[in-house]
Amino acid sequence: MDTVILGLAIAPFAEPHRSTGGSHPVTSLAMELRFDRTAFLFSILLFVVLVVLATRGAGWGWVRSFSGDVLAVMWVYCTLASAVKARPQLLAGIAFLLGVAIELAQYLAASFDIRISNPVLRIVLGATPDWWDVLAYALGAVLVLVIAMLGRFRHRRHVGAYAL
Hints:
- The protein is mainly alpha-helical and 164 residues long.
- The chain is built from five helices and four strands, in the order βββααβααα.
- It has helices at 37-56, 62-83, 88-111, 119-125, 131-163; strands spanning 4-5, 8-9, 32-33, 84-85.
- The longest helix is centred in the C-terminal third of the chain and has 33 residues, at 131-163.
- The radius of gyration is 18 Å and the shape is globular.
- The model is unreliable at 1-10 and 19-26 (pLDDT under 50).
């Protein structure tokens, strides 16, 4: 059963079930392809919110910039979780590192005076490096990990109740 916080189920943030598949232990880097419908739906929901922030949020200040970056990492996490079964720590780390890589690319582009001419790519990837964005990416990664831990804790309590 999915954990519900603020009216939203958080199943895409829950840790995947472990299976050793014989003599091969599951490690922290174990991944397998699969489709998770709930994570996919969260991914679509977050994508819509990000599009609204990008297109309508010009005057919204930090809501568009900082919150958008926090949600961007959560969107990448949900997108990955919809296609890959892996530990939440690994998926959150990948989402965070992707954000940091984009920020580094922005910094290098600014240093070498390289400009993206496509306005859509300029909105999606950003054009100005800002180290506050890295903080926002870290906060997004921490948020998905907290939600994953809450889902995992609730799942263990729920399973434990049936074991009695």
